[in-house]
Amino acid sequence: MSQPIQIKICGLSTSEAIAAAAEAGATHVGLVHFEPSPRHLSLEDAARLRRAVPMGVQTVLLVVDPDGRTLANAIELVRPDVIQFHGKEPPEALEFAQLKSEAHVWKALSVRDIASLDDSAIYDSVADCLLFDAPAPEGSPLPGGNGETFGWHILKDYPHRTAWGLAGGLNPENVANAIAETGARLVDVSSGVESAPGVKDLDKIADFCRNTVGAG
To answer: For this structure, is 45 an active site residue?
Structure first.
């Protein structure tokens, strides 16, 4: 029997949204530390919200191309269960995180084609999980959370070497189809459960989780 599908609700900024995600069945909640994002949290606010995450739910801290000092401060203040790199970080950045923390390390990657998946091999030895996301639209300052999808079909029969998850443009209406097309056992949503950029819709969170569980 296959394992239940893991659900990450990313870009949370209130304790109410964290509670709603946990109650709906999310396995991971994401806190974003990246100033251009409408979901940005200071490290102090991220640490405060991290304390509101219920037992049994993993806290993911999303960072984008952090320098060593910022990353070390983030680890010390927030103490996340998972550090998600969502920029152009080289494998060495992930190795640094592993040295500084006992947290799992994830790497988000933009996927355009099979070659993009082949290129992800450089992270196989340093990432606990790869998140396959859609490329950012031209001119967007955000590497993710743009509501864009990509050709999910290329993931279905690819010989994945590392645990992986699906991100990019997911929402309550398409998540079941996305799971069927890709075989993903981890799905990651942000803008797809919002009523406005950075504002989470608690009903959409519940719908997304329910439809994901139903697809499993």
So the answer is: no
